[in-house]
Amino acid sequence: MSAVRRVVVTGMGIVSPLGNRIDTFWDNIHSGICGIGPLDRFDVSDYPARIAGQVRDFDYSDLIESKAARSMADFTIYAVYAAIQAMEQAGFEPDGAGGWDPFRSAVHLGNGIGGFEVVEDNLRKLFERGPRSVSPLTIPKLITNEGAGNIAMRYGIKGPALTIATACASGTDAVGAAFHAVRHGQVDMSLTGGSEGAITQLAVSGFCRLHALSTAYNDTPLTACRPFDATRDGFILGEGAGMLVLEELSHARARGARILGEITGYGATCDAYHLTSPNPDGDGAMRAMKAAIDESGIPVEKIDYINAHGTSTPVNDVIETKAIKRLFGDHAYKLRVSSTKSMTSHMVGAAGAVEAIVSLLALKEQFYPCTLNLNTPDPACDLDYVPNTGVEDKMTWALSESLGFGGHNGALVFRRYEE
User: Fold this and answer.
1) Is the full-model pTM beyond 0.70?
2) What homologous superfamily is domain 266-415 in, according to CATH?
3) Catalytic residues
4) I need a surface site. Which of 129, 304, 324, 387 has the fewest CB within 10 A?
5) b or e along 124-153 (b: 16 or more beta carbons within 10 Å of the residue's beta carbon)?
6) pLDDT tens for residues 276-315?
7) Which positions are catalytic residues (predicted)?
8) Is there a common fold for 7-254 and 266-415?
């Protein structure tokens, strides 16, 4: 049997409520800054939820030409912008420049909702002015695969260009699929991550009707997302993208790449239980985490940190805590867990990829990010969630998990890179 191929990360890019460059984003995570604010993209006076994690101060024109952007939905613009950052950091240029083979490379992009704003804009045109008013770019802009397609076209990537749609687990599952493609020799490099741009009237209305969003803290958005706190009442909708360049280790070494971290395991399961609620016993989440750890070839006691799904919903946080305790036993009380959604908001299809970036940076910088607004602990959530202030401490292994509508569970294990 051939040796297991090690998979490393050589580039990262971000568009988020906490900044649109990796350095800015990490500085804000490190400082415990919250990117949630009033939702001002449309009139929300009749909406029960009136706050969001919006991307702000975003000028894509420094990296994306205006002509190209006109054929993209928001989620695609975010993905392409973050992808360019990641490829630049990795030292790759289009069409193989920088030491990569376009035919041995891939795109794996997670997305949950697609171009919702394109749907809404063109439905208005259809109902107000008839079918001839609908833009001919409606379909190419709104469908979820166009993010991956645009990235592949920009860089001339000729291997697989795949879109993973598993709701809030999409980003994690996309990175996991990319990891397996590199690990098993299908490709030598994948540009992977997740993207979402669905802070629209229809999306916010729909999530409100599900009673999924926070409605109690509209006047205090900085304290609205409070994972694992007894006073939590729902998640805060966000947007943005996180992208990573994954490479086989010898491929990265051969070109002298700077290695940012290593991915060692991925697990995915389905609850097969309910459209929007996780299984109360936490079995699916537990099995996804176990599969990722098993593939890493380590005992569960090696994990130092879990970047939790931690949505700040009454149901999720208790079940996720239960899953962690089922898998880790006594070690659950020795490791640290945090939800950085308390700062970023819930970026849906982008969430898992952004949290993979957080986990890798946490390992690199030896820093445990905090869970903001954890002031009234829920008795059912009794682990160390790094409340309110991050912690400088040693860390070798980290795990990130995502749970999505439809019962999708994904988990990734990361190791601090060592030669």
Assistant:
1) yes
2) Thiolase/Chalcone synthase (3.40.47.10)
3) 168
4) 129
5) ebeeeeeeeebeebbebbbbbbbbbbbbbe
6) 999 999 999 999 999 999 999 999 999 999 999 999 999 9
7) 168 (for beta-ketoacyl synthase activity)
8) yes
